[in-house]
Structure of G-protein coupled receptors family 1 profile domain-containing protein:
Amino acid sequence: MEMKNYSSSISGFILLGISSNPQMQKPLFAVFLVMYLITLVGNGLIILAIHSDSRLHTPMYFFLSNLSFMDICFTTVIVPKMLVNLLSETKSISYVGCLVQMYFFMAFANTDSYLLASMAIDRLVAICNPFHYGVVMSPRRCLLLLLGSCTISHLHSMLRVLLMSRLSFCASHVIKHFFCDTQPVLKLSCSDTSSSQMVVMTETLAVIATPFLCILFSYLRIIVTVLKIPSAAGKWKAFSTCGSHLTVVVFFYGSVIYVYFRPLSMYSVVKDRVATVMYTIVTPMLNPFIYSLRNKDMKRGLRKLRDRIQS
């Protein structure tokens, strides 16, 4: 049988979604719709609270407001299309639409990663070099960190999508996932993907490992510094400023490392769907709660925002 090359003529892909069970489509739609709305409202409130309270105009909250914005963009690239497909019989996405979704997904996900690294640097300077904090974490440097995060992330996405666009897709065009991620799409290609996999793994390692190692180094330095503090109360106060950030880092990087730092031969549809849901939907939804529940400054900012809305 002749194998048709779909790389140029393919009209689109079929996204199988979270579950192929017809009876699960509407319950899943309701669950993910609620999670998406919580993500939008929660992260939107964080952004409004930070911008409306002058006492929150600090580097840490500058990065947090941008992290919340990226989380909104991040989930919006994936969830609305997934919700539509849950109620649709075709569950299709165009070839161009798939590449566009892949591009913005990676761009926002990597920006998230670099913003988490920037927040770790902020905590490092605040705890280890507090007397020079205002100079080191100046508004100009914070803006440069943000612009650098976005630039590197979009260049990474562009390279990845260019590599994917050169692949040939033959008999099957069914993606066993709920969005156009790299590994499930690579699985469909009838081209020799060994070189693409090598480039993807190497480049992903560089792009994702760099902020992760930055976070790791920052917290090792913080631990060494905090252990030198003589009082237990002083140690607790220093560590408590890092708790929320560390929680988000563990959620985000734990699932990202599980999904992406394995050979394509070890790719598991069900396990990877669960892990991907964790960092694409669950973590952005939980971030506002993690950063506000034990944060007195954020609680005060949210109360101030509530009072302003009610007045």
Summary: Confidence is low (pLDDT under 50) at residues 1-9. The two ends are 71 Å apart (CA to CA). DSSP finds twelve helices and three strands in the chain. The first strand starts at residue 12 and ends at 15.
